[in-house]
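Quick question, first post here. What does this chain look like in 3D?
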Amino acid sequence: MTGDETEATQIFFLLDLGYSFEDALDCYEEVSLFNGTAKDYAYDLIEETTEIPENFRYYIDYDAIATTWRSTARSPKSTTT
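> Answer (accepted):
Ran it through. Tokens below.
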């Protein structure tokens, strides 16, 4: 994906969340794109940033983490920043 395609995808993502075009232009650079599922992203992020003891690895529910992230995606109606 070229830089222009990435920027357009970031802006369209924000517009789909309900951002105005002006607001989307102001903050599209804060959007991180990942090619894969939310579950894959959760797995990759946790594996890259967290040391998990082997005996706990089987208890991590990556589907639940992905579901939570999708349901709490930052939107203009959100009170969290």
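Residues 1-33 form one domain.
The helical segments are 3-17, 21-27, 38-49, 62-71.
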